[in-house]
């Protein structure tokens, strides 16, 4: 029988193989001891001490789909092997068609559409003082790529704290087609705000989201947890605080009115506000029954999954704000903020600004408008087409970002807020900063 276990230590160590004698009518033997780089799930699964490791060859190892009544997702993950051309043609553990893995299903009682998501939830972990990492293998393959672009979907990993509100912290994320094979992945288990190991019991969540294409596979295999620090693999999958595609919540972005001053609500929020908790003219999550007419989200072309503000025939100018979590300065001191937007409405006064708030001295907050676009200066053929925008964000210390709207009759929608290291040219060219 094959056995394996991950070894991790911050100092030199020795291994002991200890056998316990039973009734003396059998044999205990070992052979072919070897070492190889990288983590691996405990084999056989029965030897794992409920630590979350799983190759899925025997069962799901206490990983589970949320109950339907919890209304946390739309579709299940299934433990399966390759059959009837469903799922990847082989698993990672065994490398053949009879090996098991977890596959994001496409069959659901509801209409499968862009934005349909499935959660796979671990058992509960207890907090530890030492850093911890999760590793796994993923398969993200799109069989038919639309000429309009990649549209498979996304795979994300979260840590969810077991406390009121159960806030989520993103650990890892990738989007769309990656290739027709198993790729290694890993991420440090840290909370969003402290960037440190969780201090309360927690769960790990794998979230798969189908895009508009839905012709392909999103699957995972060989989940492993190990002690020690690690870098994110691949590097481009590292989750960045403030990134959001607004599929379920605002990811820590907070809607404020124009009367909220710049020193209020500085601490990151753990329970994002939604359309039910903000006033009519503020930024809000799109709902099926309340959103701009005909506007689909940019990420997956689903009916909802973006934020917007829309002002209706107000006599006074409205200036709603959308505030980021408190963001740390990058190593280089500059990041590129990217996002997609739609301008709509009937007023030439409608505009959108990106405002940088330097929080290095909370007693003297410096405000800089780094990007501003007036709807009347933006020649877009259709007010339901998403347009890309980007701007460099330079900071010397911690900072906040605001999306600040301005309108008496109209609004803007936002989606897919991302950050990239380094500077970038301002887009669209019509957008300018005021300094």
From TrEMBL:
Transmembrane segments: none annotated. Residues 1-42, 52-232, 242-426 form the MAM domain. Keywords: Signal. It holds the Pfam family MAM. InterPro entries: ConA-like_dom_sf, MAM_dom, MAM_domain-containing. One of its GO terms (cellular component) is membrane. PROSITE patterns: MAM_2. Residues 1-18 form the signal peptide. The keyword Cytoplasm does not apply. The keyword Signal applies. This is MAM domain-containing protein. It comes from Larinioides sclopetarius. The lineage of its organism: Eukaryota, Metazoa, Ecdysozoa, Arthropoda, Chelicerata.
């Amino acid at each position: 029988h094959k056995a394996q276990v991950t070894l991790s230590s911050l100092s030199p160590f020795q291994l002991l193989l200890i056998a316990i004698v039973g009734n003396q009518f059998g044999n205990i033997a070992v052979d072919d001891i070897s070492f190889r780089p990288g983590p691996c799930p405990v084999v056989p699964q029965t030897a794992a001490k409920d630590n979350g490791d799983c190759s899925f060859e025997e069962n799901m190892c206490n990983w589970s789909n949320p109950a339907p009544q919890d209304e946390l997702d739309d579709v299940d993950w299934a433990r399966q092997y390759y059959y009837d051309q469903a799922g990847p043609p082989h698993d990672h553990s065994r490398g053949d068609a009879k090996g098991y893995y977890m596959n994001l299903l496409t069959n659901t009682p509801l209409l499968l559409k862009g934005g349909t998501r499935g959660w796979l939830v671990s058992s509960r972990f207890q907090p530890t003082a030492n850093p911890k990492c999760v590793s796994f293998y993923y398969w993200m393959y799109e069989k038919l790529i639309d000429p309009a672009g990649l549209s498979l979907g996304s795979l994300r990993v979260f840590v969810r704290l077991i406390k009121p509100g159960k806030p989520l912290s993103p650990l890892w994320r990738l989007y769309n087609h990656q290739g027709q094979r198993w790729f290694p992945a890993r991420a440090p288990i840290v909370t969003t705000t402290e960037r440190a190991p969780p201090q309360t019991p927690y769960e790990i969540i794998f979230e798969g989201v189908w895009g508009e294409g839905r012709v392909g596979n999103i699957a995972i295999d060989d989940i492993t947890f190990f002690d020690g620090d690690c870098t994110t693999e691949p590097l481009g999958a590292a989750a960045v605080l403030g990134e959001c595609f607004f599929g379920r919540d605002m990811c820590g972005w907070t809607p404020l009115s124009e009367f909220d001053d710049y020193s209020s609500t500085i601490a990151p929020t753990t329970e994002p506000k939604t359309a039910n908790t903000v006033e009519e003219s503020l930024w809000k999550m799109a709902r099926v029954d309340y959103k701009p007419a005909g506007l689909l989200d940019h990420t997956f072309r689903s009916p909802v999954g973006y934020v917007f503000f829309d002002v209706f025939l107000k006599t006074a100018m409205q200036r709603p704000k959308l505030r980021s979590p408190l963001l740390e300065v990058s190593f280089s001191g500059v990041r590129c903020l990217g996002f997609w937007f739609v301008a709509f409405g009937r007023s030439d006064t409608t505009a959108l600004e990106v405002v940088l708030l330097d929080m290095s001295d909370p007693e003297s907050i410096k405000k800089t408008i780094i990007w501003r676009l007036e709807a009347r200066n933006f020649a877009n053929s259709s007010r339901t087409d998403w347009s890309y925008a980007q701007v460099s964000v330079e900071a010397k210390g911690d900072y906040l970002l605001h999306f600040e709207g301005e309108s008496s009759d109209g609004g803007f929608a936002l989606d897919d807020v991302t950050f990239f290291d380094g500077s970038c040219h301002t887009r669209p060219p019509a957008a300018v900063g005021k300094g």
